[in-house]
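Quick illustration, no need to memorize.
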Amino acid sequence: MHCSSPKMVCETKIVADEHDAIPGTKKESIIWSSPPSSAAVNPAEAKDVRKDAVFIREFERGDQEEVRRIFYEGIMERIPNTAFRGLRQQPKTQFLYALLTVMCFYVTKSVTLTCCAPLFLVGARYYYSRTVIQSYLDCALNTDMADIEAYYMTPPGSCFWVALLDGRVVGIVAAKGREDENTVELRRMSVDSHYRGKGIAKALGRRVLEFALRNNYAAVVLGTTAVKLAAHKLYESLGFRRTGQSEDYRLPGMSRSPLERLFFQIRYSRYRLQLREE
């Protein structure tokens, strides 16, 4: 397994499409940077605050298990998205699969086998997507996510936050300073699937932007392999602009074997939000 320095790719690149809203009407949540005092809350609104208020604070050692759970589940959700929805972003791969299906009929002269060929190809995509993404997950859980306090809370210019709802960790995000470029990298943004559609992801993103401003960084950058459009709309709503894109990105854990390259491709997008002129 190719698992080099966690600074390489073990970041938000997989987990970025947690922004999906729950269908139907949603009630705006109250976002607090720290738990409000009882005196600041109107008694008539106390019930709603307890129910809907989301608190964002810095990571504490006791959060480790829940943080890793949210990250793990967010990664695993990406397997079918990458295998199936991701194919829509790969027109060359679609053409190749169609060509292989035609060749199957030409060689076998069997309508049955030819009809089964697309199912085999899609099944192979799922298998290789699962294999690669699980390797990526192993890499992340054994690098920066293995010791969040040491990797994000101790070094200057870095931090890790959690979002709390009813005392439960429901979202995470990290910032890693790049002193040589005078930028902050937004990483590891993920929201528990049961608590989406409440504006938590946007609030976490804003926390990273505030952190960058307070520490006088010139820009915030991020990279994502998100398939769903909602993730990209989230970044754009925060003010990010796409600065580049790669159609055949390499994740940690990839072997780049011929079969893996045939059945696993992923698009990588780079975003940047300029905070001030350098």
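The mean pLDDT is 83.
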